[in-house]
Amino acid sequence: MLNMLRFLSAPPDVNLIYVDSYNPTWVTVSVLLAIISSYAALKASSRIEHQSDTASKLTWTLISTFILGVGIWSMHFIGMLALSLPCNIHYDPFITLMSMLPSLLASGVSLGVVWHHGTRSLPPWGASLLLGTGIGIMHYTGMAAMRLDGFVGYNPYLFTLSIIVAIALSYFALRVKVQEVNPNTRHHLLIAVILGSAVSGMHYTAMSAAYFVRGPISIEIPPTDLTSNTLAILIALTTIFLALTGLVLVAVSSNREVTKQLRDNEQRLKIATDSGQVGIWDFDLQSNALIWDETMFNLYRARKEDFSGAYDAWLTRLHPEDMAAAEAALQDAIAGRREFATEFRIIGPDGEVHYIKGHAHVIRDKTGKPLRLIGTNWDNSAHAMIQQQLKFAHAAINKSRSSFFWINSKGKVIDINDCTCQNLGYNREELIGQYIWCFDQNFPAESWPKQWAEQKQAVTRTFDSLHRHKDGNVFPVEITANCIDVDGVEYCFFFTHDITDRKAADAQIKQLAFHDPLTQLPNRRLLEERLKHSINVERREGKQLALLMLDLDHFKAVNDSLGHQAGDELLQQVAVRITERLREVDIVARLGGDEFTILLEDISQPEDAARVADEIITCLTKPFNLSQCDHIQIGASIGISLYPLHGSNPDILMDHADAALYQAKDAGRGCFAYFSEELTLAAQERIALEIRLRRAIEQNELRVFYQPQMDILSGRIVGAEALVRWQDPINGLLSPIHFIPVAEESGLIMGIGEWVLRETCRQGRQWMDAGLPPITLAVNVSPHQFRRSNLSQLVATVLAETNFPVHLLELEITETGLMENQGHASAILNSLRTQGLRLAIDDFGTGYSSLAALKHFPLDVLKIDKSFIDEIPFNKDDMEIAATIISMGHTLGFKVLAEGVETAEQLAFLREHGCDTYQGFIKSCPIPAEEFVELVQYQ
After folding, report:
1. Within this chain, do residues 499 and 609 fall inside the same structural domain, yes or no?
2. Tens-digit pLDDT profile for residues 885-937
3. Which residue in 96, 610, 833, 878 has the most C-beta neighbors within 10 A?
4. Burial class for 594, CB neighbours closer than 10 Å (0-12, 13-18, 19+)
5. Cross-strand partners of 530
6. Quick check: is 264 in a domain?
């Protein structure tokens, strides 16, 4: 096409240019044709996206393309015909017709690309480039068809501007089209004006770029019957016809679509109403006529011939109790106060009641006057019955005497009944929304997911739990839990019963089954179970237990003389006295009559059972005061069997304890006996010793003896160890080995230890007052005394009372006593050290202390136990141990004292290895105070 265009670098001479002019009418017509055809093409193209098949989409694409392409070409051709030149003008028919092809192609591509299938595969600038270029090609091809006396030249700048105008206005039009949201006629008209302006603007801009230059030769115009005006009219009419035809086709297609949609909607509505049994009615307010569809007759169980079609015919079919409400709802809707939405009952021909749900819309004229109501009815009986059943169920649950909880999967309370509020002391608002674990101790928050999963698996289960009242009181409940699924949401229902009375009854039954009703003590059944369990425990832990069989002496005489009521009262008091003598872990059971059995668990030695038996016998010999008589005197005999010594199962132990009881009775009653005669004698001797020791303390039979402690280098007395002795009237002077173990087991050691401390300090003060040189006095502290007494306070009190110098008092604590509880021992030692006492560790080497522990104790003296001295110089191991202890003690900053030194060889060895002090028979055995004074004075 560019070969047919002649561009001029400069304007031709004015005398060579034809002066052109335009017919304003045809110019206007050309612009209007561009706008009309653009509008028709846009309307036709809008049908593309409404088509479902490819053929229909392609058809509408071709229609819109043809209308727009012909419109663009018509605008151009009529615009050319509007041009007047003072020369002959002729148009080549073939080229003129061929110039229509670019406009058709450009229109088809742009419309098809932008609107086809309702999607946009090219951006607006791409489509506008195609359309603008096509318009330009069409125009300049048409100009090439012009024949005149001369030639047509072009201003290259205006030529370029014409193309830019076409593309720019096309872009503007397409951009507006793409961004439209709700397209309408006004919108399409705006786009058509812009698109028509693009075509017209390009044409007349291009015409201003043309120079019509005179030529030397005149052309011959072919003869024709058509004038330019006639041709313009034909083209304009044809274009308008095409545009109108397109608009008619659009209207017909739209109407068909709307009709089809209405038909489809009607069909869908019919299917929906038929399947859902929804009836449609139309009530004309002017004529009072009521029209029903087929479903309405089915809903109301009515025949068409029996229905008059009047408003009253509908109203009379309603339940008498619902007529007023239904009519009021209808009148409110007509008056515009609210929508018509109501529910009422109807009575069928068979007298059956049905629930009908109704909705309606009021049709009004322009003034708001109501003309008619169109509405729907459907049978709501099933839903109404469900609601009624739920209402009845809710009422029944509320009236229930059981608590009810509705709980979701998170443990949150959804609903409750009145009984729940009463039982827990809360109101509804306080409970709803709370979590079940806030008042149920069986459902802690951390384990709820696991319990919920178990509940779902079980579906229904019953279990006991504890509920907590608002006031804090806890009471037992029985819960029946059921899981359900409602529309995919899981819930659980709890029905709970307060079982406080039942639990009390169960406890009473259990009490009666396992306890003696008279004394409330365990009975034989519970004793046997407890004995089996205890044997298993003691077997596993390697411990002992004792079974004591007790029979009351002279009970039958009391029962026969004073009656059964007095006998029962006596048995009750006996049960109390026995229980008071036992530990919490022990039990006493009544087997029947005046027989009792006592189970002692975890005893350390057989004598423990003897001590308890003796205490019980002693307490039962004291007089009883009964309602009928005071000072009733009875006694008791006890037989003892031990596990595992006397048997390994309950039956054997019971039999052996019973046999031991007969031995005790044969021995004269009021005593105890072991199943073994040797154990009985040993226990009796031990108890007798304890009794005599108590008397010895009361009668001042204890004595303090002193054993000198010597400086190993100078040989002088620097101290003495205070040792207790018992001046027994029967057996003479007894050493500690005969009575200290009994004192420790019976607790008498506390009093003995305090007496020795006070007596030693008193004696030391007396010696100082008599002029003896200062001597350190060492007092032994029993492990029991070290553990249980306030030793520091006791020492301070005794020193204050006796006025004995604190720096001359030394306390000896055994290695075992120190290591039992290092933290406690360290605290006691530090408290004593702050007073200024000397502290010694006694019997070192016999326990399990370590250097790491010893270095933290504030000690002064390390005493080597006698067992390491006895075999010196014959036992090398003992010699090495003794030497090591001396060296270790000095390393830790302790003085070292050797106990039990009896030979010169032993003394020489100790002196050689640097021992500081010693005591033993080589110098003196423990001696009375007066002899010790003489020893000090004459050393």
Report:
1. no
2. 999 889 888 999 999 999 999 999 999 999 999 999 999 999 999 999 999 88
3. 610
4. buried
5. none
6. no
* Mean pLDDT, all residues of the chain: 82
Instruction: For the beta carbon of residue 813, count every other beta carbon within 10 angstroms.
Output: 25
Give the separation between CA 776 and CA 769, rounded to whole angstroms.
Answer: 15
Q: Distance between CA 919 and CA 878 in Å, rounded?
A: 18
Q: For residue 664, what pLDDT band results from cuts at 50, 70 and 90?
A: confident
Would you say residue 510 lies in a domain? Answer: no
Which residue in 191, 82, 211 sits closest to 131, CA to CA? 191
How open is the CA angle 339-341-345, to the nearest 5 degrees?
150
Cβ distance 46 to 34 under 8 Å? no
CATH number at residue 824: 3.20.20.450
Could you check whether the bond before residue 476 is cis, i.e. omega within 30 degrees of 0? no
Among residues 108, 60, 76, the alpha carbon closest in space to that of 236 is found at 76
Phi-psi region of 526 (alpha: psi -120 to 50; beta: other; left: phi over 0): alpha
Domain contains 435: yes
Q: Is the dihedral of CA 416, 417, 423, 424 positive or negative?
A: positive
| Out of 111-115, 145-149, 648-652, 841-845, least confident range | 111-115
CATH code for the domain in which residue 457 is found: 3.30.450.20
Q: What is the pLDDT of residues 508-528, one digit of tens each?
A: 777 777 888 899 999 999 899
Q: What is the pLDDT of residue 385?
A: 77
Q: Say if 363 falls within a structural domain.
A: yes
Query: pTM (2 decimals)?
Result: 0.42
Residues 246 and 107 in one domain: yes
DSSP track, 846-894:
SS---HHHHTTS---EEEEPGGGTTTTTT-HHHHHHHHHHHHHHHHTT-
- The torsion angles phi and psi of 690, rounded to 5 degrees, stand at -65, -40
Q: Are residues 375 and 327 in the same domain?
A: yes
- C-alpha 250/C-alpha 47 separation (Å) is 7
Provide the number of structural domains found in the chain.
5
Measured distance CA(383)–CA(506) in Å, rounded: 47
728: exposed, middle or buried (C-beta count within 10 Å: 0-12, 13-18, 19+)? Answer: middle
Q: How many residues does the chain have?
A: 939
User: Would you say 175 and 157 are in contact if contact means Cβ atoms under 8 Å apart?
Assistant: no
Q: Is 402 helix (H, G, I), strand (E, B) or coil?
A: coil
359-366 long-range Cβ contacts below 8 angstroms, 24+ apart:
360/281, 360/283, 360/330, 360/333, 362/333, 362/334, 362/336
**Whether residues 81 and 210 fall in one domain:** yes
Q: What is the dihedral of CA 668, 671, 673, 678, to 10 degrees?
A: -90
- Is residue 574 within 8 Å of residue 598, measured between CB atoms? no
Pairing label, strands 635-643, 544-553 = antiparallel
Q: How far apart are CA 653 and CA 673, in angstroms?
A: 14
CB 120 within 8 Å of CB 187:
no
731's CB contacts (< 8 A; 6+ apart) are: none
| Neighbouring residues of 822: CB distance < 8 A, sequence distance ≥ 6 | 853, 856
> Which pLDDT band, with edges at 50, 70 and 90, does 118 fall under?
very low
More confident residue, 150 or 627: 627
User: What is the span of the domain harbouring residue 323?
Assistant: 276-385
Q: Which domain-ending residue is among 250, 267, 295?
A: 250
Sheet containing 544-553: which strands, arranged edge to edge? 587-592, 595-603, 544-553, 635-643, 672-674
Identify the bridge partners of residue 403 per DSSP, sorted by sequence position.
496
Please return the burial class of 718, using the count of CB atoms within 10 Å of its CB with bins 0-12, 13-18 and 19+. Answer: middle
Cα 806 to its chain centre, rounded Å, is: 64
Task: Tell me the percentage of the chain whose pLDDT exceeds 90.
Answer: 23
Please state, in angstroms and as integers, the Cα–Cα distance from residue 601 to each residue in 282, 528, 745, following that order: 96, 14, 17
